[in-house]
Amino acid sequence: MLLVGCIALLLGWAGIGLAGLLRPRSVFFTGRILFPLGALLGLALAALGAVSLVGGGIERLVLPIGLPGLPMHLRLDPLSSVFLVLLGASSGGISLFAGGYFRAGEGTAPGLLCLQYHLFLASMGWVLIADDAYSFLVAWELMALSSYFLVVTQHRIPEIRRAGFLYLLMAHVGAICLLLCFGVLQGGSWLFTFHAMRAAHLSPGWASAAFLLALVGFGAKAGLVPLHVWLPEAHPAAPSPVSALMSGVMLKTAVYGMLRVGLDLLGRPLWWWGLVPLILGLFTIFYGVLFAAVQTDMKRLLAYSSVENIGIVFTGIGLTIVFAGSGMRVVAALALLATLYHCLNHAFMKSLLFLGTGSVLHATGERNLGRLGGLIHRMPWVAWLTLIGTLAIAGLPPLNGFVSEWLLLQSFLFADHLPHAFVNLLIPMGMALVALGAALAGYVMVKFYGVIFLGQPREASLVHAHDCGWLERIGLAWLALGCLALGLAPVQVIGALSAVTAQLIGAVVPQASAHWWLLAPVPGRPVSYGPVVFLTATLAVVLLTALLVRLTYRQRVRRAPAWDCGFGALTPRMQDTAEGFGQPIRHLFQSFFDIERELPAPADRAPRYRIAIRERIWKLLYEPLSGAVERLANTAARLQQGRISVYLLYSFATLLVLLTVALLS
Amino acid sequence: MTHLPLYQQLLDTCAALLLLLSFAMLSQRRVVTLVNLYAVQGAVLAAATLLLAWRTGEGHLYLSAALTLALKVAFLPWLLHRLIRRLEVYWDTEPLLNVSGTMLVGLVIVVFAFALAQPITLLASTATRSAVGIAVSVVLLAFLMMITRRKAMSQVIGFLSMENGVFFGAMSASYGMPMVVELGVALDVLVAVLVLGVFFFQIRERFESLDLHHLEALKEHE
Which residue, A55, A453, A458, B220, shows the most beta carbons closer than 10 Å to its own? Predict the structure, then answer.
């Protein structure tokens, strides 16, 4: 019954999209009616997913459409329910925001945008409930295509078209791997339902091949290093609500796919499979956060931060598989909890941040951090709501980012019980990397927030920046509320997520404490976390301090200009810049970056400072690769002579060869 | 020495004539003669079809023979002659491979075709032992002719001659194709020639010549 409701909601999304074509030019119709309606459907979908998750049951449905011999199989189980909640709840906030965000005269017409947007949502939902390889891949491609069109909304700008192409290319490379993966998974039965794949018994070699193909396929969509290159290009190119949806939700469909294939379809995973996503994930964390630290474009910064968070998620998947493959079910369940929790968290906080940058972009027309600053005075709503997302993604308690990272670190602590020599020594070192990543993420977020919202406005035009409209405020507030709720009620969230661990791992994490406010997930270890207590204590300390300060210093406030070293001509442009903030990281980890720097000479009358930071991966991997492809294509192009005789000769030779083969066989 | 029945001897003679005509076309550079040779080939084909029709009593083979006569002996040669007059292409230039070389390659191809036809010959009815090998040879020789010529006109004749080979092969191996297919193929050939005729005028108008090496400029880039 829930599944039917779910299908109805997805069709409702598609219907809303089509309705956008009725009045394609009307911003009022799409923005004030259709997008909020879509948000309502999203919330309904989230509620439906939550009911299904708490119920913990599995529903199946076969619709008589699709290929002959392969009707469309759909299924709603705890794993898809979690991701449906994620999709519905975060898209609710994003759609509301989008209703106020899209304006007339910006690239694609609003009605068309509404169609692409809602098809994107519906296809993501379809991916989550698909139960056979065919409908999964159709939905997957629909998702890629609709999001491609959303990315190239401003298609008149060549850079955006290039970014769109890169995205499409990577999406298709990934899709090919998935196609092959499903081809391996059917295991000779030639039945492409997921049910048949679960029943297929693959040899360890083929199962490993399927796992690695899935890792490449889903990794390309999720943004696992070195397949992440499209993220920092496509996210800044897309309109902000689309970036939020892609980063917050679409990347998670790839995580869903990885969990579905790795832990569900492949049955019992081999323990060493987990090492691959674990190592790649750890590297991705480090790589993503380093590049985030040196960015000067605020959306690009967030894109790299998404790369980092995907690294955390894949680290969690890797740990889950290592533990599950080694028979440590309860710990595997703990790692899986951390993974799922982080997916939920990231969906809320990254969407919140992307939407915040969208508001800033609309108010100022500026994405470059070097021309922003001091916006907290002009845009208090955006600034304060974004602050919640910033704190959450930096991993500070009592917000949600802390919970999942804490759970992940807790599950790392069990790695020394693994029955494999060396590995049980090396994995705990990964924990140090995760911790370093978390610390650097905090650094990045200080830079992000500090440079945009704090200090003085670096440009005179920023004085005219205005706060966002009411629909946008509601959208931002909903996502911020999600961050708070996920942070304050971990016990309840984990209780709901246990249905998934029971389904995939066959174990649940026993919650040692019966208190609703105290999270103590690790049996036999004295670790616990009470976010409400923490919040109360923090609030009490802050209030008390404020009170004391007010009482003691009230009469003695005086305002004076800051000391300027006797220079006497300080301007807001002399504040610490984004480049300056990232400089220590750039200096320490120089070997990671491909830096091109232009420094002015001492006697230069018009000094100019320019720095471009590229990824080395372009020179090391992608340029040789594209060069090889081009050489291959040129070699093949030599076949094209332009002479009819030669073409006829080709046919003739082919005919002779085929006849000879026929003769010999 | 075994004595073959008369019709068998006649059929083998027709087949031999077809092969001979193919070689003659391969070596001929005068376009007008090429068209005449094609007409003769059509006539031999019609005779062979008639022979087979008389032998088997299949009604549609009579029709097929009549069609061949009308189309390949009368109409297409007339059309081609008219084209030659209007386009004033009487000679093909020197072929890409000289005549003696082409003939040698042709010999090798005939040997290959007979080797290829062997398993089919074993399956075929007794009436048409050697015919299949010759049919395949005619197809391949026509193909060879298309490859070695420069002028579009000769290539069209090669194409038509190839169709003759296919027709002969189908007839000798299985007493002709179904009527519908035969009619369809005849129509195809007719249309192809008409379309190519139009095409010739276009090429000549563009390049003031029918030499196909001008078309090499159409490739993408160096």
Answer: A453
Domain count, chain B: 1
Asked whether residue A357 falls in the same domain as residue A483, the answer is yes
In a domain, A659, yes or no: yes
Q: Which residues of chain A make contact with B220, given a CB cutoff of 8 A?
A: 637, 640
Distance CA(B176)–CA(A35), nearest Å, equals 68
Instruction: Give residue A489's identity as a one-letter amino acid code.
Output: A
**Domains held by chain A: number:** 2
Chain B residues in contact with A642 by the CB 8 A cut-off are 215-219
- List alpha helices for chain B, DSSP H: 6-27, 31-56, 59-68, 76-87, 99-123, 131-148, 152-174, 179-207
Tokens encoding B162: 């190839």
Give yes or no for a contact between A437 and A308, defined as CB atoms under 8 angstroms apart.
yes
Classify residue A26: in a domain, yes or no. no
* Nearest-CA distance A632 → chain B (Å): 15
Q: How many CB atoms lie within 10 A of CB A530?
A: 20
For A556-567, how does the pLDDT look when each residue is reduced to its tens digit (9 = 90+)?
A: 777 887 788 888
Same domain for A396 and A507, yes or no, is yes
Beta bridge partners of A297: A368
Asked whether residue A335 is assigned to any structural domain, the reply reads yes
- The tens digit of pLDDT for each residue in A537-590 reads 999 999 999 999 888 887 677 788 778 888 877 888 888 888 888 889 988 888
Which tens digit of pLDDT belongs to each residue from A168-225? 999 999 999 999 999 999 988 888 999 999 988 889 999 999 999 999 999 999 999 8
B interface mutation test: which of A645, A646, A651, A660 has the most B CBs within 10 A? A645
For residue A392, give both structure tokens.
């959450």
Same domain, A527 and A595: no
Instruction: List the domain range (segments joined by +) for residue B57.
Output: 7-212
A480-490 burial code (b ≥16 CB/10 A, e <16): bebbbebbbbb
Indicate whether A6 belongs to any domain.
no
Q: Backbone phi, then psi, for A63, in 5-degree steps? A: -100, 135
| The predicted structure's pLDDT at residue B1 | 45
Both A628 and A523 in one domain: the answer is no
Length of chain B: 222
Residue A426, pLDDT above cutoff 90:
no
Q: Distance (Å, rounded) from C-alpha B64 to C-alpha B23?
A: 25
Whole-angstrom Cα distance, residue B109 to residue B136?
A: 9
Residue A278 CA to residue A121 CA, distance in Å, equals 30
The verdict on B146 touching A (C-beta cutoff 8 Å) is: yes
pLDDT tens by residue, B140-182: 999 998 888 877 788 888 888 988 888 888 887 776 667 777 7
Ranges of H-type helices in A267-297? 275-293
Q: How many CB atoms lie within 10 A of CB B191?
A: 10
Same domain, A535 and A432: yes
B208 touching chain A per CB within 8 A: no
pTM score, whole prediction:
0.81
User: Where do we find the tokens 């305002």?
Assistant: A559
B222 in reach of chain A (CB within 8 A) = no
Structural domain contains residue B222: no
Residue A434 dihedral angles phi and psi, to the nearest 5°: -60, -45
Mutate to test the interface with A, among B121, B146, B196 (most CBs of A within 10 A): B146
Q: Are B38 and B25 in contact (CB under 8 A)?
A: yes
Range of the domain at A648: 589-600+607-664
**Interface contact B219, partner A, CB < 8 A:** yes
Cis-peptide into A226, omega within 30 deg: yes
Residues A533, A517 contacting (CB under 8 angstroms): yes
